[in-house]
Specification:
There is one protein chain. By secondary structure, the protein is α+β, with helices and mostly antiparallel strands. Helices cover 39% and strands 18% of the residues. The protein is built from seven helices and seven strands, in the order ββααααββββαβαα. The strands form three sheets. Strands 6-5-7 form a three-stranded mixed beta sheet, with no helix packed on it. The protein has a two-stranded antiparallel ribbon with strand order 1-2. It has a two-stranded antiparallel sheet with strand order 3-4. The protein starts with a strand and ends in a 7-residue tail after the last helix.
């Protein structure tokens, strides 16, 4: 079993399983075999899998597990802080890295990458003071093309700006 501590460093082996079991026991829940396997699958993936992807991988180890069991346990593990749940345009994804971090989504292959948290110190306090909101957390999302997709597509050509239409490129009549 692999888990990441608050510093984002991986903790492997029985210690991770015991820590996860302790967190769940403290909340009156058990680390059952399906929950442990679901947690292992999500934490072993850097791709931020969907529930369906987790289900397919868990099913290899537990052939009789149901999709409903996987959904229910993913939501419970996220509620208990052992996973992060994030919604995007494609649906809900799960993240085994619960340490603070931001995300980069490749617009070509749709893969989601973890990137170090870049939030400037005091941003939450400034937003709260300017708006009167109580800011509990923040999330920064970056979008672009990952290295593999950039290499596959070749160099990016300069794109024409929307205001550069045919009329703007036509030579202007001289005023003489």
């Amino acid at each position: 079993m692999i888990t990441k501590n608050a510093d984002g460093r991986s903790v492997e082996g029985p210690a991770a399983g015991e820590a996860n079991a302790a967190v769940l026991r403290a909340r009156g829940k058990r680390l059952t075999r399906p929950r442990r396997i679901i947690l292992d699958v999500v934490r072993a993936s850097e791709a931020h899998p969907s529930a369906l992807t987790v289900y397919r991988q868990v099913r290899r180890r537990l052939p009789r597990v149901s999709l409903a069991t996987v959904y229910r346990n993913l939501r419970m593990l996220a509620a208990e802080g052992l996973l992060s749940e994030r919604a995007d345009a494609a649906g809900t994804r799960f993240d085994g890295n619960t340490a603070p971090h931001d995300h980069f989504t490749c617009v070509a292959c749709r893969r989601i990458y973890d990137v170090p948290a870049l939030g400037a110190p005091g941003v939450r306090a400034r937003v709260a003071s300017r708006t009167g909101f109580e800011v509990l957390s923040q999330r920064i999302e970056f979008y672009g093309r990952c290295g593999a997709c950039r290499r596959a597509a070749g160099p990016t050509r300069a794109r024409r700006k929307p205001w550069q239409d045919e009329a703007s490129r036509a030579p202007r009549a001289s005023r003489t």
